[in-house]
UniProtKB/TrEMBL annotation:
Superkingdom: Bacteria
Domain ABC transporter: 21-258
A molecular-function term among this protein's GO annotations: ATP binding
Short name of one Pfam family: ABC_tran
Protein name as it appears in the record: ATP-binding cassette domain-containing protein
Keyword Nucleotide-binding assigned: yes
InterPro entries in UniProt: AAA+_ATPase, ABC_transporter-like_ATP-bd, ABC_transporter-like_CS, ABC_transpr_LolD-like, MacB-like_ATP-bd, P-loop_NTPase
SMART domains: AAA (SM00382)
Residue ranges the record marks as coiled coil: none
TM ranges: none
Length: 274
């Protein structure tokens, strides 16, 4: 029997004014003793509903760790992470699994589709795992938005990389999550497919009201977002609204230069930016 389908904008416990996700003094330490690494150092950040945010920063700056901790994939060492009104550290492993399934959508660089299922079966798999039925109108909207109409019966091996990633985006959106986390979603795509995919992510925010947080190294990708947050050494060092690709590139070069010069420079990369 069809189950009632929660709307993304009004998920029971989360007032609209509340951010889709929020970290407060989030610290994540891996290892101990000589191998101890502080991947995130008291990070506080909010991701507003209906916005597209890029998370950028040099390799090892903590981008994936931030995403994993905020999505409930990795436990925090200290501090707080919330999805809507739910504090993740208060949840059991089982509750976290349910939260990830119901409130979070994921898009990974490697698509992560099941090879034996068709595109449509892959898209609706998270709902089936949660014992829910797809809402036909929303499923049509999502499939239409990512432009997969004629390919729903194909298996992943019969689709291009760009098409496979569109299936992954549709799968992330189909449960109307509170937030979609995308980790380098264009990393395995050629530039044209990547640009298309970013267009779909942006449309899912502008036209479908979703919230997307995307980890990326690519300034052109970040320019599709409404906001770019920069990490360096596990801390947020900049926060740019409506980022342009050249501004992002300039910031990246500056932070990379600071990183390699001990982190004390102020504008070391500027001269090479343009
Ligand atoms: N499971 C782990 N065990 C130990 N250290 C880890 C683990 N995961 C990440 N780290 C360390 O934490 C720091 C942040 O890593 P993270 O993967 O979040 O960076 P990133 O900015 O996503 O890097 P990249 O852009 O290269 O993917 C790095 O120093 C990394 O080596």
């Amino acid at each position: 029997m069809p189950q009632p389908f929660p709307s993304p904008a009004s998920p029971g416990s989360s007032p609209l004014t509340e951010p889709a996700a929020r970290a407060t003094d989030l610290t994540k330490v891996y290892g101990r003793g000589e191998t101890r690494v502080t991947a995130l150092d008291a990070v506080s950040v909010e991701f507003a509903r209906g916005r597209f945010t890029a998370v950028m920063g040099p390799s090892g700056s903590g981008k994936s760790t931030l995403m994993h901790c905020m999505a409930g994939l990795d436990p925090l060492t200290s501090g707080s992470a919330r999805i809507g009104g739910t504090e993740l550290s208060s949840l059991s492993e089982r509750q976290l699994t349910a939260l990830r399934r119901e409130k979070v959508g994921f898009v990974f660089q490697g698509f992560n589709l099941l090879p034996t299922l068709t595109a449509l079966e892959n898209i609706t798999l998270p709902l089936h795992l949660a014992g829910r039925k797809p809402e036909p109108a929303w499923l049509d909207t999502v499939v239409g938005a990512v432009g997969l109409g004629g390919r729903l019966g194909h298996r992943p091996a019969e689709l291009s990389g760009g098409q496979q990633q569109r299936v992954a985006v549709a799968r992330a959106l189909v449960s109307r999550p509170e937030i979609v986390f995308a980790d380098e979603p264009t990393g395995n795509l050629d530039s044209r497919s990547g640009a298309e995919l970013l267009g779909f992510l942006r449309d899912s925010v502008r036209e479908l009201g979703q919230t997307v947080v995307m980890v990326t190294h690519d300034p052109t990708a970040a320019a599709h977002a409404d906001r770019a947050v920069f990490l360096a050494d596990g801390r947020i060092v900049d926060d740019v609204h409506t980022p342009a690709a050249d501004t992002v590139l300039d910031r990246m070069l500056r932070f990379e230069a600071e990183g390699t010069s001990g982190g004390h420079g102020t504008a070391g990369g500027r001269g090479t930016a343009g």
